[in-house]
Amino acid sequence: MPAGETPFSFLYKLCFEGLRERYRPITSAVTRRLQHELEVIEKTGLAEFFLINWDLMRFAKERGVPGQGRGSAADSIVAYVLGITRVDPIEHNLLFERFLHEEMTSTPDIDIDFSTEHREQVIQYIYEKYGWERTGMVCNVVTFQPRMAIRQVGKALGFSAELLDRLAKGVDRWFTEDVEDSMLWAVPPPDMRPQSWQLFLELCREVIEFPRHLSIHNGGMLVTGEPLVDIAPVEPAAMEGRRVVQFNKDDVEDLGLIKMDMLGLRTLSVVAEALDLIKDTTGTRPDLDQLQLKDPAVFEMCSAADTIGVFQIESRAQMQTLPRTRPQTFNDLVVEVAIIRPGPIQGNAVHPYIRRKQGREPVTYAHPLLEPILKDTLGVILYQEQIIEIAMYVAGMRPGHADGFRRAMTRHLNRVEMSSLEDEFVGGCLANGVPREVADQLFAAVQGFAVYGFCRSHAAAFARTSYETAWMKLHHPVEFGCGLLNNQPMGFYHPSVLVEDLKRHGLKALPVDINVSDVRCLPERIDTGHAMRIGFNYVRDLGEEGRKAIVIERANQGPYKSFDDFLGRLRGGPIGPKAVRNLVMVGAFDGLEQPRRELLWGWQERWHGKGLRRGIDKQSELRLDGTPPALPHIDDFDANQLEYRISDLSTGHHLIHFCRDRLREMGALESNKLPSIRNNQPVRVAGLVITRQAPSTAKKIRFFTLEDEFGQVNVTIKPDVYERYRQVANRQPILIIDGVMQRQDGVHSVLATHIQALAGVPRPTQRSHDYR
Questions:
Q1: How many CB atoms lie within 10 A of CB 132?
Q2: pTM for the whole thing?
């Protein structure tokens, strides 16, 4: 703390310095809001809490660590002018009382996302600044879930590993079935079951949800004024130099301790890397804080559901909704982020909003007092902040009491407690001139939506990142694509899907090349602009040290002139035989015009291939007459299979391209022909499965996405159909699905009636996004 300053006076000073940077011109509404928030912060004694978070963001900014606050903290103008959050609460009509009010007894949450790549720097800064004795990570209590229970109980009872693997994989991770029911297809016949089978089932049922061990919370960290050991039980973490507090986040909140939430968000790593690559290719690094959030082309791209790789709006459900809602403003995007959530779906908020957005249903308000509150969501209650505003401005409650009302409505209350809340709410409405009938209807609506409402400020913070990633995908697709590939695993799709999306946009993905590729995927200038060059990070078994060794040697001594030159220069380095073989077979030496099979054969004969061919004599020792026959060249299909096997993606043809003739013979349509198929018409589709989903709100309906060389097909599978074809649907990579076309508002999908696998195609190593 600077000399002569108190925590609050220093906070006050920082806020008005930030105000001048964030707002030009400064309006009376802005200064009133800031003054009000500072008064509440002073009364609640939270100045130091805000200063700690400001200090974290200051450190991150100075070190170039991407970070931004989210959650209810985005409701605060103090958090905004301090640089903790990036969403203007005045412009986007965010309610401070959802975040903090005078009657709040617990410490508010400020969740800060940092780049996953750099988050550890911030954690170490906290340890260094506040001391190891006053800081510790919050724990998670990990409990037994069905799969783990089956494996560990079965192992203790001596079941075979093969049986346990089959039983565990049969469990449905999404739905609460009895352990025995979930394993039905994998259970051995009665005469082949282990003797302790019934005991096994009983023990599995008993241990499910029982604590198994402690783990570290994703980002929760305690900072205390007194030594931590005097306040909470502490244990050493597995990572050297860390301490874990044996309290979880709920315990910490109940005790009123100050918890910092520093979460890792890979999307911020993507954004940071993409911005650096844009600077490399254009000479200018875009300042995302200066984006106006009004680019019509960005909203048009989102409305067309061209959002693979875009933060928060790339899922199947979002891509099915975007063409129906057609967002045209940033506020529309905020709604889109918030609406495809379990809460709004269960609260039946989705379809009324879509109908009103499309003009198929009039926008109405039960009372004029509701219009300013619900105008942004077309008269539909969607956000938690709206519940508080209704309680404040319609039922006349104080801000703190209104937030307490919202919280109370989310709990399981008995009839007396709920009746008391209803009487207070309805009485307040009547005092404001709201008719009794309307007040009763409004309480019923609030009661239904309070449990399911989504935090508007959280949606706004995420929507900002959604817009920024959409902007980069539109205007700098290669750099953004490189960022996505270099920060896997993340997001909703496998890397191969990201590469196929890039190719469908008319851009090129170039294969691994020993003299061109870098450690990571990078843009490469070609005649038509820029292409994506796949990096050595997509060569299996090469490792970080091996990748760097190749690039450093090439930078110091020049390009590799031949395969033998490469081997000679890196002899004794960190590149093992498997990595060399993979480099050859993925085509990294094709630019040297030496056939892959000949390189591999010759290397195994002359160099270190012995490790891959134990017990086989060299050809020269076999004393055969004549010369060896010519080895066949790698054709397109072989190259495709090798790329999938070694890099998990293909820079050439899509896998389905090689199955197309067979699929046409079987009557399966290409994905780009489906838009012409009429509603309710029978159709057969086929493709590589890239997602399998079973949302908890979908009543056991499954949603699959198939991909072919032209695009994607969404498939809906009802429970009875899924049970009939469960094994094929879950285990086979390429599916042929018969069904009925379903069309609504320009969005189409196939309702499955029959599922089969395409036989005789080599199994690709690509993994689909299954039930995550």
A1: 12
A2: 0.87
